[in-house]
Design brief:
mainly alpha; elongated
Length: 208
Amino acid sequence: MTTTIDARGQKLTAKGLATRERIVRAAAELMYEHGAQNTNNEQVREAAGVSGSQLTRHFPTKESLVRAVLAWQADSIVARHQAPELGELDSFAALRRWADSYIASQDMVRGGCTFGSLAAEVVKAEPAHQDTVAHGFKRWQELFQHGLSKMRQRGDLRPEADPAALAHLLTAAFQGGALLDQAAGDSTPLRDALYGALAYAESFAAER
């Protein structure tokens, strides 16, 4: 989530925006690899190539940096789900392409879902992040719900299909499968979870 206002409430210049983005990207990678609790300011400064004053100017507290990373990761997840080849996720073929793109990715094996991994860590350790986490998941689920609603409106799904419930199922299957992938070191759990969730969604397909 790009912001044009810094922590002091002042409008950021183009250079300031670029610095902020560099800090968030560096912090996101570190937190993905090591967790938020094991990521400190010195590591972020070194990875981002910024001074201590630059870091604290944009993010005066660890909490403000974690919130920014959560928002940035949510943006990244949403952008990936809006890839041209996925359209509006409004067909079974598009949903299969979405699933296959993650099953083939080694990211899930390496460290799990970028957003979900950090969300699971911080929402328990710091309840103040709950709203940010909930908003990120809501944006994600709304993409599925929108596509599934279009499918029901077109008659691809039977009227009794519940787009919101199916969106929850797809997101939960992804999150659980990604965690199991990380633990097992291979993509079989994610494949099984996503294909199972898609099979259930397809059980509501209208007869032609």
